[in-house]
Design goal:
This protein has two domains: 1-31; 41-135, no CATH class. Helix content is 44%, strand content 18%. It is built from three helices and four strands. It has helices at 5-20, 60-73, 106-135, and strands spanning 48-54, 74-83, 90-93, 98-101. A two-stranded parallel ribbon has the order 1-2. Strands 3-4 form a two-stranded antiparallel sheet. Helix 2 runs parallel beside helix 3 (106-135). The longest helix has 30 residues, at 106-135. The N and C termini lie far apart (42 Å).
Length: 136
């Protein structure tokens, strides 16, 4: 997979931070392009107990791929800790003839909705499989 040079610098800094904190044996860092799930290493599937994310949902079109990526790599009892700067889009409303600030953070709300839907679907599938196994 091609990794952008800036992302390489971020991963290098992250690995250095992990080493300084002496948790190398407990941490894994990987580049994961949300837009190309077919290129992901299959060993990452359900591999992580903890996913840390910071400022990853900055645009509405990032919400669904981000939620899907987290869902794909998060272990069965995994936890997601996500830091997010609340933003309100500001744009020129041509009908009103003025600059308008949105009342809500659209990308964050979309992420919450998509991630909850993804988790509900996963739980339903898991329950279906449990019931299926008991029926046999």
């Amino acid at each position: 997979m091609h990794v952008h040079p800036l992302k390489k610098k971020v991963l290098k800094l992250l690995r250095k931070t992990i080493a300084v904190n002496r948790v190398v044996e407990k941490c894994t860092t990987v580049a994961l392009d949300w837009s190309t799930p077919n290129t992901w290493d299959p060993t990452l599937c359900r591999a992580f107990d903890l996913v840390l994310a910071a400022d990853v949902v900055y645009a509405s079109n990032a919400a669904q791929p981000c939620a899907a990526a987290i869902d794909a790599v998060l272990g069965e009892h995994g936890v997601v800790l996500m830091a997010h700067q609340v933003r309100h889009a500001i744009y020129f409303d041509s009908k009103a003839g003025k600059v308008v600030k949105e009342a809500h953070d659209g990308p964050l709300e979309l992420f919450r909705y998509v991630f909850v839907v993804v988790l509900v679907v996963v739980i339903i599938i898991m329950l279906w499989n449990v019931n299926d196994n008991h029926m046999q």
